[in-house]
Amino acid sequence: MTDTIEAVFDTVAATAGDVRTVLSSRRSYEAAENPSGEQQLAADVYADEQLEDELLALAEVGSYASEERESVSTDTGAYHVACDPLDGSSNLKSNNSMGTIVGIYDEPLPAPGDALVAAGYVLYGPITTMVTAVDESVTEYLIEDGEREVLSEDVQLPDDPVVYGFGGRVPDWPTEFGAYVDDIEDERLKLRYGGAMVADVNQVVTYGGLFGYPMLADRPNGKLRLQFEGQPMAYIIETAGGASSDGTESLLDKTPDGLHSRTPVFVGNESLIAGLESKL
Ligand code: AFP
User: Fold this and answer.
1) Domain spanning 163-279, CATH class
2) Is the pTM of this model over 0.85?
3) DSSP states of 198-209 as a string?
4) Fewer CB atoms inside 10 Å of the end CB: C or N, the chain?
5) How confident is the model at residue 37 (pLDDT cuts 50, 70, 90)?
6) Quick check: 25 pLDDT over 80?
7) pLDDT in tens, 243-262
8) Which residues take part in binding Mg(2+) 1 (predicted)?
9) Measured on CA atoms in the order 104, 13, 44, 264, is the torsion positive or negative?
10) Using CA atoms, how far apart are residues 241 and 225, in angstroms rounded to an integer?
């Protein structure tokens, strides 16, 4: 299993090198929308096609699914990879951070959280980095020329949280959630929100804190997809000593109703998630 997982991460790192190179020429919108009704950028389509081709070429990868395609692409193999090829791609226009999210499952997709065997993300920031969670350990890498070089091993969330960031319009947040935000402001946490889950979660990994995209007045399940965003990021945060929740239970205890189903997402320090669950 370890060889396959490392081969998937190597492939994602190599693809990230390609994606970074072509971003400047793929900033325009395509005519098509993704299955969640969001407009696709040329870069979304490029990253998705690259990942599908390269990951399905691995002998043990039996299927590939992504936010950018309606159904699962199948092959033969024991592992099933779910990707958000370019998370936060609307940040491409404003030249802010974006990422790639990958979850490796040992059950066909859509799969429950407890079928995850590893997860990782790439962050396209001022430099390109990758964070992986496998074998109960989180590692941060620098990616240069498509190759991974270890920056930090056994990454854990810092004990004293510093930052928080929540998506959605404030008037659309449930009242109890707004009250919780007042509480964490009183604890002197600092608001930082960039609109790309990978970047907003990576600052939680770096400084400690909380990221969330809550349920909204007109979207009871929030915006983020459980299979492609919620579960892989929950797996990484929980492996790094943090916690995840949909407001009542860990995202890793959930099973998606469908490939593209959405869920409220909260990930961060255990104490903050416990406080949030008691408030909601
Ligand atoms: P895009 O990929 O459409 O930019 O959406 C990014 C995202 O799925 C996730 O990465 C962010 O946390 C969240 O949506 C941002 O949503 P808002 O634009 O509503 O803040």
Assistant:
1) alpha beta
2) yes
3) HHHHHHHHHH-E
4) N
5) confident
6) no
7) 999 999 999 999 999 999 99
8) 67, 84, 86
9) positive
10) 23
- The mean pLDDT of 128-136, rounded to a whole number, is 97
Nearest CA to ligand 1 atom 18: 195
117 CB-near residues (< 8 Å, 6+ apart): 1, 5, 79, 104, 105, 106, 134
> Hey, what are 220's tokens?
């009871």
Nearest-CA residue for atom 12 of ligand 1: 197
Work out the mean pLDDT of the chain and round it to a whole number. 94
Residue 31 — very low, low, confident or very high, per pLDDT cuts 50/70/90? low
- How far apart, in whole angstroms, are the C-alpha atoms of residue 122 and residue 141? 9
- Greatest mean pLDDT among 15-24, 30-39, 218-227: 218-227
Decide whether 2-152 matches 163-279 in CATH topology: no
Phi–psi pair at 103, nearest 5 degrees: -120, 135
Q: Which CATH class is domain 2-152?
A: alpha beta
Of the candidates 95, 163, 155, the residue with the CA atom closest to the CA atom of residue 125: 95
Ligand 1 site, residue 112, Cβ cutoff 6 A:
no
Q: CB count, 10 Å around CB of 252? A: 18
Let me know the angle formed at the C-alpha of 112 by 253 and 74, rounded to the nearest 5 degrees.
165
- Domain spans of the chain? 2-152, 163-279
Average pLDDT over residues 209-214: 98
| C-alpha 193 – ligand 1 centre gap (Å) | 11
For the Cβ of 96 lying below 6 angstroms from any atom of ligand 1, the answer is no
| Residue 167 in contact with ligand 1 by CB distance below 6 A | yes
The closest-lying atom of ligand 1 relative to the alpha carbon of residue 198 is 10
Cα of 194 from ligand 1 centre, angstroms: 9
